[in-house]
Amino acid sequence: MIGRGIKEGIPVLVGYFTTAVAFGLLGRNTGLLFMETVAVSLIVFAGASQFIFLSLLASGAGVTEIVITTFLVNLRHLLMSSSLAVRLERKSALLPLAAFGVTDETFAVASFGSGRITEPYMIALNTTAYLGWVSGTAAGYLAGNLLPLKLQNIMGLLLYVLFVAILTPEVRKRYSLLPVILFSGGVNWLLSLGGWMSSGWNMIAAIILGCTAGFLMDRRRHEEAR
Amino acid sequence: MNHYLILVLMMLVTYIPRLFPFLALDEKKIPPAVKQWLGWLPYAALGALIIPGGLSAIEGPWWISPLGLFIAAGISWFYSNMIVTVLCTLAILYFIPIG
Question: Cβ distance A134 to A41 under 8 Å?
Fold first, then answer.
């Protein structure tokens, strides 16, 4: 169980390390101390919101603004944890530890992983990802500026590449997934073009509508089959 | 305000939504319809995570990020190994001139 968690966590570790290098570098450029920058990754461990934190800090935002934005940006994990919770086998005292490391990427890997979801599996997977994130932050702060600019730029796509790499084999097995994926992405895109809500709410709305679309599609197919 | 205090507050508002569903949802008591709905969550979530954020993740011409994702989809269609996909996509993009 632990071995499988580590094995499936390696690609996330690689992706996280490189993305966190960018974060560490940015933390340094924002004027944070080394320990402060590493502490963000160590304590918060939530990619997008950490980058937003730096830009808010740089723009002189207040504590309330930072905390509320972080909450909204990360609220989508409520949905992801719910999805994992209904698949989790047996709960124990380890649960708080397993829940700490739920991120977009560890959630994606666990959801599409090769087997059952248990606490030891989740903790092994999340810890592997966590190590990449924290060590990448430290490395980025100390040496990120040594990387060629072009590579730093391209690395911005890395986590999205990881998401695509997770989804494509699923779509290949089941073409009917694609409309739901594109629908939820399209809703998110439209909402962000509209600019009515913050990006955190946009994503939550898109996920909820996407799930509902998939659910209705299932229903219809079910009725047609009868 | 002390940066570390902000971090602790950020951690709390991030951690509580991560933990709450595990404590509140009992696998055996969830109605099948809700389970079915949640079954779509990974796909809907990844769709919203990739689009539109991933379409403009690289600074440069508008087509470079979509091209990168397309290359990644192409590679992972044939090799479902994530590391291979990530490294190959990165290498290919590195050699495309984007000014």
Answer: yes
